[in-house]
């Protein structure tokens, strides 16, 4: 698959077929994903592939707790915005989403069946080997993730290229002690994310709703958008 197509159609899948993902498909995807960049080639990432039904069920029981709280608050927020605003104002406050309530209900389904999805992949990070450079800035440190998440995104793209859908979530990281005990993850390894993988029940999207380049990218000064170069005469 062309990498551009993979990037433009790799969505957060909410509905999965029950079919298992073969080990050789997973192996080949990890074989590609491992080349993701990280600082100093220290390779501080490991993965735990969870296929055991009992362990997946246990992860699902943990996941639904924070999700229920989040979903309840989000629904209340959406209802308030819809009641107060119309037209453009409503669209702006809802992030341009056409039907945010449907998206939330789809995510509810995903959460309610979290422990039943074909594969749950735990992304683990050796924090001591990420060497973040922003720990003294008086804000939440984020730089260390640069040695972790590129490999995780590589995995999502590698699976997409093989017809396997994914959902990337960090919600379950709040239950890191319980997850580590359940899966025997050593003390020095942190849980950085969880990736659900499986064959999509409804196929892949042909278009994802994302901000245009002009709203994402500035040149030289914040707010000066990058524009497509004129092609005439080139």
UniProtKB/TrEMBL annotation:
Residues 9-199 form the Nitroreductase domain. It comes from the Bacteria. Keywords: Flavoprotein, FMN, Oxidoreductase. CDD domains: Nitro_FMN_reductase (cd02062). InterPro entries: Nitroreductase, Nitroreductase-like, Nitroreductase/BluB. This is Oxidoreductase. It comes from Acidiferrimicrobium australe.
């Amino acid at each position: 698959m062309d990498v551009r197509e993979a990037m433009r159609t790799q969505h957060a899948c909410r509905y999965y077929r029950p079919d298992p993902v073969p080990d050789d498909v997973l192996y080949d995807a990890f074989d590609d994903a491992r080349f993701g960049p990280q600082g100093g080639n220290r390779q501080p990432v490991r993965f735990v592939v969870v296929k055991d039904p009992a362990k997946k069920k246990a992860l699902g029981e943990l996941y639904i707790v924070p999700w229920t709280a989040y979903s309840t608050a989000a629904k209340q927020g959406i209802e308030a915005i819809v009641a107060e605003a119309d037209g453009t104002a409503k669209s702006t406050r809802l992030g341009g989403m056409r039907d945010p309530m449907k998206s939330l209900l789809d995510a509810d389904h995903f959460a309610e069946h979290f422990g039943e999805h074909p594969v749950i992949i735990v992304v683990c990070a050796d924090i001591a080997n990420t060497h973040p450079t922003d720990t003294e800035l008086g804000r939440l440190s984020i730089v260390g993730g640069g040695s972790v998440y590129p490999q995780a995104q590589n995995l999502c793209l590698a699976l997409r290229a093989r017809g396997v859908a994914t959902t990337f979530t960090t919600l379950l990281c709040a239950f890191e002690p319980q997850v580590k005990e359940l899966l025997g993850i050593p003390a020095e390894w942190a849980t950085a994310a969880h990736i659900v993988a499986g064959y999509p029940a409804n196929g892949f999207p042909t278009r994802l709703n994302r901000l245009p380049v002009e709203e994402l990218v500035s040149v030289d000064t914040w707010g000066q958008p990058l524009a497509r170069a004129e092609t005439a005469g080139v």
